[in-house]
Design brief:
This protein has 329 residues and is α/β, with parallel strands linked by helices. The protein has 14 helices and ten strands. The strands form two sheets. It has an eight-stranded parallel sheet with strand order 1-8-7-6-5-4-3-2. It has a two-stranded antiparallel sheet with strand order 9-10.
Length: 329
C-alpha cells in the first residue's frame, strides 16, 4: 500500500512518515533504516560535536542507503555559542537537500537554503508560528502537539485540535507530530488534514536506534502516564521520562526554585549518559506520551511499512463498517 500525499510528492519519498530529529539519537544508522523503509530519516546535526563531524555522519549515512534523507538543525539560544552557520554550510556542502529546522525562526537561513535547492520543514508548536513559517518560505510544516516529547510549547494544545486548526490556515504540506506510533495514528492524521506523520519516540524504540537496550525496554514497559513536564514555571516546558531526576526537577521548581537550583540535574551530559549507559535514572531524557502505545522493539525499516499497512486496514475497515450500517438502514 502507498499513500501518495503532498508531502511524499514534494520530498520524493515513498511513505508519509518522518523520523524526527532527536538529540543523541538521530544518527546515520537510524536515519538510513527509516529511509530504506520508504520514510524520511533525519540525522540530528548537533548530535555531532563539530560541523566536520556532521559531514562525516552524512557520508556514513550515504553508505547505508541510496534513498533520500535529511538533517535536523535545531537553533536555540545556548550557554556555549554554537556555530549554526557552519553546521548549515556543512549540510549544503554534503549535498543534503532536505532540512528540518526547529527552535528559532528559520528566516535568517532561508535565502542560503533556497539558493542551494534545499527544501525546509519547520517544526512548530502553534498555528501562529506555522503561518509565520510559511510566510518566510519553508516548504512544509511539522506541527507538534502537546503529546510530544521534548518542547511542546506553552499553549498545551493536543493534536486532535492543533492539526486541523493548522491545516485550515496553511497551504503547504503539513506533517503531524506528537503522539503517533502506529497505523491508527497515521490514518487519524490524514483524516485531520495532515499529509503525514512525524515520530520520535516510536523510532527511539527500534533496533537501529543507537541508544542502550535498557532505554528501549523502559519505553516498552512504560505507559502514557510515565512522563514529566519540567520547566513549566520557567515557561520553557519540556516533556521527559518520569524518573528520580525529572521528579526532583519538577518538585524543586514548583517550590519556587530557579534554573540554577536544577542545573546540575538537567545537564545534557547526564541525559546523554542515559542513552549510552542505560541508567534510566542518570539524567533527564525525552520521551512522548506515545510510549503508552509501544509494546515491542522492531526494525525501523520494517516499522515504516507496517504502519502504512495498518493505516490502510484501519481506513478500509472503517469504510466497510460505515457502508454496512448504511445498507442496514
Amino acid at each position: 500500500m502507498m499513500f501518495s500525499t503532498r508531502f511524499t510528492e514534494t520530498f520524493g519519498i515513498t511513505h508519509p512518515i518522518v523520523q524526527g530529529g532527536m538529540q543523541w539519537v538521530g544518527r546515520a544508522e537510524l536515519a538510513a533504516a527509516v529511509a530504506n523503509g520508504g520514510g524520511l530519516g533525519l540525522i540530528t546535526a548537533l548530535t555531532q560535536p563539530t560541523p566536520e563531524g556532521l559531514a562525516a555522519e552524512i557520508a556514513r549515512c550515504r553508505e547505508l542507503t541510496d534513498r533520500p534523507f535529511g538533517v535536523n538543525l535545531t537553533i536555540l539560544p545556548t550557554i556555549d555559542p554554537v556555530p549554526y552557520d557552519e553546521y548549515r554550510d556543512a549540510i549544503v556542502a554534503s549535498g543534503v537537500t532536505v532540512v528540518e529546522t526547529a527552535g528559532s525562526n528559520p528566516a535568517p537561513h532561508m535565502p542560503f537554503f533556497k539558493e542551494h535547492g534545499v527544501k525546509v520543514i519547520h517544526k512548530c508548536t502553534s498555528v501562529r508560528h506555522a503561518v509565520k513559517a510559511e510566510n518566510v518560505g519553508v516548504d512544509a510544516i511539522s506541527i507538534d502537539g502537546f503529546e510530544c516529547a521534548g518542547h511542546p510549547g506553552e499553549d498545551d494544545i493536543p493534536g486532535l485540535v492543533l492539526i486541523p486548526a493548522a491545516a485550515a490556515k496553511i497551504s503547504i504540506p503539513l506533517i503531524a507530530s506528537g503522539g503517533f506510533a502506529d497505523g491508527r495514528g497515521l490514518a487519524a492524521a490524514l483524516a485531520l488534514g495532515a499529509d503525514g506523520v512525524n515520530m520520535g519516540t516510536r523510532f527511539l524504540c527500534t533496533r537501529e536506534s543507537p541508544v542502550h537496550q535498557r532505554v528501549k525496554e523502559r519505553v516498552v514497559e512504560a505507559t502514557e502516564l510515565d512522563t514529566e513536564l519540567i520547566f513549566r514555571t520557567l515557561r520553557n516546558t519540556s516533556r521527559v521520562a518520569s524518573n528520580a531526576v525529572s521528579r526532583e526537577t519538577v518538585e524543586t521548581l514548583s517550590a519556587k526554585g530557579i534554573f540554577e537550583d536544577v542545573r546540575h540535574l538537567v545537564n545534557g551530559k547526564r541525559g546523554r549518559g542515559v542513552y549510552e549507559l542505560g541508567d534510566i535514572d542518570a539524567g533527564v531524557w525525552s520521551v512522548g506520551l506515545s510510549q503508552g502505545l509501544i509494546h515491542e522493539i522492531p526494525s525501523a525499516t520494517e516499522l515504516v511499512g507496517r504502519i502504512v499497512d495498518e493505516a490502510e486496514e484501519v481506513i478500509r475497515a472503517q469504510f466497510e463498517r460505515i457502508f454496512a450500517r448504511a445498507e442496514l438502514r
